[in-house]
C-alpha cells in the first residue's frame, strides 16, 4: 500500500509515497493513518503534508523508479478526523483552491511546521533528589534558571509559562541533560459540566419563539439555519445565551463567531457572566503557541464556549452543538486573500455536517441571507422591539444645503469650517448638558483625506497606489504629523511648500476623525480657558492600535459622564454604551452615490448599526443625519421605512438587473507589473472559455484601484444564473487559465462569491 499526501504547494493534485516499515517510529500499524502528518521530500525540499488516502501500488500512476518513501510519520493518531477532511475537500472544491493549500489554511502554523501537538502541555519539574548543591559555583546562569523553576514547586510549570517568564529553552535542555530536571505531560482534566453563573432573563414573546425553535432543532439533532433578524438592541444576545444553555447542558460545545475580538473586551464578559464554563478566545492577535493551545482545546472538547473571529469556523471540534454567527452581515467574515471563504457560508456547511442549528444574528441582514430565507434555506425569526420600554431611536434628517456648516475662528483670526451644522451642534450641546453622551460617526480616520495646493491644484498622492495620501496632522507635535497611504502604508513628511509650484498655500481638505475631534474641542471647550469641558474620545484604528487602549476607552465611556465619542465604523460593531442618547452622522450617506452596486446595502447597514448605539439604556435616544442630498430616494426610504423594507427594495432591483444574489459570481483578478500584461492574460483566459459556457462575462477591466503597492490589477467577472453552471465551467477552465503562458509571471486569483468588485 502507498499513502496519498496533500502537500502545501499550489498544485491541484496529491502525491503518492511509499512507506517502509522503519518509517513508522510512532506506531506499530504499518501505514500512517489517514489524517496524520508525514514528512516527505518534494523536489529538493522537505515538506510536511497530510495523509488523505491509502492506495494500492497498482493504482498509482507513479513509475516504480520514481516512487519515494516518506521520511517519517509525525502522528500516531490522526490529527484531522474524517469530518475535518471532508470540510477540507468541500472548501477545495467550492473555492477551487488546491487541497494541500486548504489544509495549510486550516492548520495552525506550529502544526504545519510539524511540532508535536502536546508541545504546550509539556511541563518541566525539578527531579526530587536535586538540590542547590548540585551546581558548580561558576554555573551561575544555570543556577539562576534553576531557581526560576524552583519557584513553581514540585509540580513545576508548563514550558509555555516558563518561556514567558524568561527561561531559555537551551537551558531547559542543558539542565535536562545533566539529570537535574525532567519534562512530563500534565494530564488534562476533563472540563467540569457547565453551570449557570447568573439567572437568565425572562424572554419576551418573540425571543421565546426563537429560543424554542433553536432548542427543538438541537434536541432533534437536526440542522437548521436560522436568521435571527432583530433590530438593534432587541436582545439577540439573550436568545443566543438561552439557546446555548440547552446545548451546553447537554455537554456540547458552542462556537460563537464575532467580526472582531480585540475591539470588544465585553464580548467574553457577556458569556462569562452567564456561564461558569471553559471559554476559549480565538483571534488574529494570538501568538502561535496560544493558537495551537486553542486548536487543541477545541479538538479535544476541553473548550466549552469558543468565541472567535472568521478563522475559528475552520477549527476542529470534538462535539460541536451550536454555531452562532453574530453580526452575520459583517464584511469581515469574508477572507480577502488565499482561500477566500465566507465564514457564514462555512458555518452553514458545518451545521449540515454535524446536524446542529446555526444562528445568523443581525439587525441588518445581508441581501444574500434574505434571499436564502425566500428560498426556504434559512428560517427567519424577527425581534421587532427592544425589551422594556426602550424604543429604537428615530432618525431625523438635517438638510445641510439649507444651513451652512458652522464656522469657527482660530486664535490668529482665520476662519475654518467645522463640517457640522448649527442644528447638529445644538443637539450635541443639549445632550451633553442633560448629562448624556454623544456619538459622532465619521468613517474616515486621520486628519484630512487630501493635501491640496490652492495655487496650482497639486495633490499629495501615493507614489505606489492610485490614491491620495491621508494627512495625519497633530497640532501638539510636528513629529506625529505626516502623510500616509491607507492602502500600502507609505509615509512621507508634510511638505511646507508645493513640490510643483513652490506655493506655500497648501491646505488639508476634508475632515477625518482627528480633525473632527479638534473641531469639536474648539466648539465645546470653555471659551475663556479653552479647557475641555467634556472629554472627546476618538475611536479609530489609530487610537486603538495599542494593546489595552480599547479597554481604557471602554472604561472611560462606561463611567457614564457626559462625553463626545468620535468614531469610525469600529463603533458600529455591537457595542452597548447605555449613556449614549444622541448619534450624529455628519456625512454617512455619501455611500448612496457610489458606483459600486453593493454600496447602498453596506452604507445602510453601517448607518443602522451606528444609529443602533443610541438610546440603549433607560433614556430615549435620537439619531441625526446631516445630508447634502435630502431628497435621495434611498436615504428617504431607509429613514422612513426602515432597513428591512429598504433591503427588500434593493433585492427587487438586483433581481431585475440579474445581479447577485440572483446570479452567482466569480471574480478573477490578475496582478502584475504592467496593466497591459494583466489585461492580456485575462483576454487569453476568455479565449479558452468553453464555447457553450452560458455565463455573462464582464471584462477584462481595470480593478477599482488598479495600481496598488506598485502593482497593477485587472479583473474579470463571471456571472451565472445557476451556481452549478458556474462551478462546472470553473472546474474545467480555471486550472488551464493558471497554466496560460501569458499568466506565467502574473498572480491570478479566483474569488467565489466576491463581496466587492
Ligand atoms: N428579555 C429581556 N428582558 C429584559 N432585558 C433584556 C431582555 N433581553 C435583552 N435584554 C437587554 O437588552 C439589552 C440589549 O440587548 P442586546 O445587546 O442583546 O441586543 P442586540 O440585539 O444584540 O443588539 P445589537 O444588534 O445592537 O448588538 C441588553 O442590556 C440586554 O440585557
Ligand atoms: Zn499606497
TrEMBL record:
Gene: priA
Gene3D superfamilies xref list: P-loop containing nucleotide triphosphate hydrolases, PriA, 3(prime) DNA-binding domain
Gene Ontology MF terms in the entry: hydrolase activity
EC top class named in words: isomerase
Domain Helicase ATP-binding: 217-383
InterPro entries xrefs: DEAD/DEAH_box_helicase_dom, Helicase_ATP-bd, P-loop_NTPase, PriA, PriA_3primeBD, PriA_3primeBD_sf, PriA_C
EC number: 5.6.2.4
Cofactor: binding details: Binds 2 zinc ions per subunit.
Record-linked SMART domains: DEXDc
Keywords annotated in UniProt: ATP-binding, DNA replication, DNA-binding, Helicase, Hydrolase, Isomerase, Metal-binding, Nucleotide-binding, Primosome, Zinc
Amino acids binding Zn(2+) 2: 462, 465, 485, 488
Homology family: Belongs to the helicase family. PriA subfamily.
One Pfam entry name: DEAD
Cited function: Initiates the restart of stalled replication forks, which reloads the replicative helicase on sites other than the origin of replication. Recognizes and binds to abandoned replication forks and remodels them to uncover a helicase loading site. Promotes assembly of the primosome at these replication forks.
Lineage: Bacteria, Pseudomonadati, Pseudomonadota, Gammaproteobacteria, Moraxellales
Protein name: Replication restart protein PriA
Amino acid at each position: 500500500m502507498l499513502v496519498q499526501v496533500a502537500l502545501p504547494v499550489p498544485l491541484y493534485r496529491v502525491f503518492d509515497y511509499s512507506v517502509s516499515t522503519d518509517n513508522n517510529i510512532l506506531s506499530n500499524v504499518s501505514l500512517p493513518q489517514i489524517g496524520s502528518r508525514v514528512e516527505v521530500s518534494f523536489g529538493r525540499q522537505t515538506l510536511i503534508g497530510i495523509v488523505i488516502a491509502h492506495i494500492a501500488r497498482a493504482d498509482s500512476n507513479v513509475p516504480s523508479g520514481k516512487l519515494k518513501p516518506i521520511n517519517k510519520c509525525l502522528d500516531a493518531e490522526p490529527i484531522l478526523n474524517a469530518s475535518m477532511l471532508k470540510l477540507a475537500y468541500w472548501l477545495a472544491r467550492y473555492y477551487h483552491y488546491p487541497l494541500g493549500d486548504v489544509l495549510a489554511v486550516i492548520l495552525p502554523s506550529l502544526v504545519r511546521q510539524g511540532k508535536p501537538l502536546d508541545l504546550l502541555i509539556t511541563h518541566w519539574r525539578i527531579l526530587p533528589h536535586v538540590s542547590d548543591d548540585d551546581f558548580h559555583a561558576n554555573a551561575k546562569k544555570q543556577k539562576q534558571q534553576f531557581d526560576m523553576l524552583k519557584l513553581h514547586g514540585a509540580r513545576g510549570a508548563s514550558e509555555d509559562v516558563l518561556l514567558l517568564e524568561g527561561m531559555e529553552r537551551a537551558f531547559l535542555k542543558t539542565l535536562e541533560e545533566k539529570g537535574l530536571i525532567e519534562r512530563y505531560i500534565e494530564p488534562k482534566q476533563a472540563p467540569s459540566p457547565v453551570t449557570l453563573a447568573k439567572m437568565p432573563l425572562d424572554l419576551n414573546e418573540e425571543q421565546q419563539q426563537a429560543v424554542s425553535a433553536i432548542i427543538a432543532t438541537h434536541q432533534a439533532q437536526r440542522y437548521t439555519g436560522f436568521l435571527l433578524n432583530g433590530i438593534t438592541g432587541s436582545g439577540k444576545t439573550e436568545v443566543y445565551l438561552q439557546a446555548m444553555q440547552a446545548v451546553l447542558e447537554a455537554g456540547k460545545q458552542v462556537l460563537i463567531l464575532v467580526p472582531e475580538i480585540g475591539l470588544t473586551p465585553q464580548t467574553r464578559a457577556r458569556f462569562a457572566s452567564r456561564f461558569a464554563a471553559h471559554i476559549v478566545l480565538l483571534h488574529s492577535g494570538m501568538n502561535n503557541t496560544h493558537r495551537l493551545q486553542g486548536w487543541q482545546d477545541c479538538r479535544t472538547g476541553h473548550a466549552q464556549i469558543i468565541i472567535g473571529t472568521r478563522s475559528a469556523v475552520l477549527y476542529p471540534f470534538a462535539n460541536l452543538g451550536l454555531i452562532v454567527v453574530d453580526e452575520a452581515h459583517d464584511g469581515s467574515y469574508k477572507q480577502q486573500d488565499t482561500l477566500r471563504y465566507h465564514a457564514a457560508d462555512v458555518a452553514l456547511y458545518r451545521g449540515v455536517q454535524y446536524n446542529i442549528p446555526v444562528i445568523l444574528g443581525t439587525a441588518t441582514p445581508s441581501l444574500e441571507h434574505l434571499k436564502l430565507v425566500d428560498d426556504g434555506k434559512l428560517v427567519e425569526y424577527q425581534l421587532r422591539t427592544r425589551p422594556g420600554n426602550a424604543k429604537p431611536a428615530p432618525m431625523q434628517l438635517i438638510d445641510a444645503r439649507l444651513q451652512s456648516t458652522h464656522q469657527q475662528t482660530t486664535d490668529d483670526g482665520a476662519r475654518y469650517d467645522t463640517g457640522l451644522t448649527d442644528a447638529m451642534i445644538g443637539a450635541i450641546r443639549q445632550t451633553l448638558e442633560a448629562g448624556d453622551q454623544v456619538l459622532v460617526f465619521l468613517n474616515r480616520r486621520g486628519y484630512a483625506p487630501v493635501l491640496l495646493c490652492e495655487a496650482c491644484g497639486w495633490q499629495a498622492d501615493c507614489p505606489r497606489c492610485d490614491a491620495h495620501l491621508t494627512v495625519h496632522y497633530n497640532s501638539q507635535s510636528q513629529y506625529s504629523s505626516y502623510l500616509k497611504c491607507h492602502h500600502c502604508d507609505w509615509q512621507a513628511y508634510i511638505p511646507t511648500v508645493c513640490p510643483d509650484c513652490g506655493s506655500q498655500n497648501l491646505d488639508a481638505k476634508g475632515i477625518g476623525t482627528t480633525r473632527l475631534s479638534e473641531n469639536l474641542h474648539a466648539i465645546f471647550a470653555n471659551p475663556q480657558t479653552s479647557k475641555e469641558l467634556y472629554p472627546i474620545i476618538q475611536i479609530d484604528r489609530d487610537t486603538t492600535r495599542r494593546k489595552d487602549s480599547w479597554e481604557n476607552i471602554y472604561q472611560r465611556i462606561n463611567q457614564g459622564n457626559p462625553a463626545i465619542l468620535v468614531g469610525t465604523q469600529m463603533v458600529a460593531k455591537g457595542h452597548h454604551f447605555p449613556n449614549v442618547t444622541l448619534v450624529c452622522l455628519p456625512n454617512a450617506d455619501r455611500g448612496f452615490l457610489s458606483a459600486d452596486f453593493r454600496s447602498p446595502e453596506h452604507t445602510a447597514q453601517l448607518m443602522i448599526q451606528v444609529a443602533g448605539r443610541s438610546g440603549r439604556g433607560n433614556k430615549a435616544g435620537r439619531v441625526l443625519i446631516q445630508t447634502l442630498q435630502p431628497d435621495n430616494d434611498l436615504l428617504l426610504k431607509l429613514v422612513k421605512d426602515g432597513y428591512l423594507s429598504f433591503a427588500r427594495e434593493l433585492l427587487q432591483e438586483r433581481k431585475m438587473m440579474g445581479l447577485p444574489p440572483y446570479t452567482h459570481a466569480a471574480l478573477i483578478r490578475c496582478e502584475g507589473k504592467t496593466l497591459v500584461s494583466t489585461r492580456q492574460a485575462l483576454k487569453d483566459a476568455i479565449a479558452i472559455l468553453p464555447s457553450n459556457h452560458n455565463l455573462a462575462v464582464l471584462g477584462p477591466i481595470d480593478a477599482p484601484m488598479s495600481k496598488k503597492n506598485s502593482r497593477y490589477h485587472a479583473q474579470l467577472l463571471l456571472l451565472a444564473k445557476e451556481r452549478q453552471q458556474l462551478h462546472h465551467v470553473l472546474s474545467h477552465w480555471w486550472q488551464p487559465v493558471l497554466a496560460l503562458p501569458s499568466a506565467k509571471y502574473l498572480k491570478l486569483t479566483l474569488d467565489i462569491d466576491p463581496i466587492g468588485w
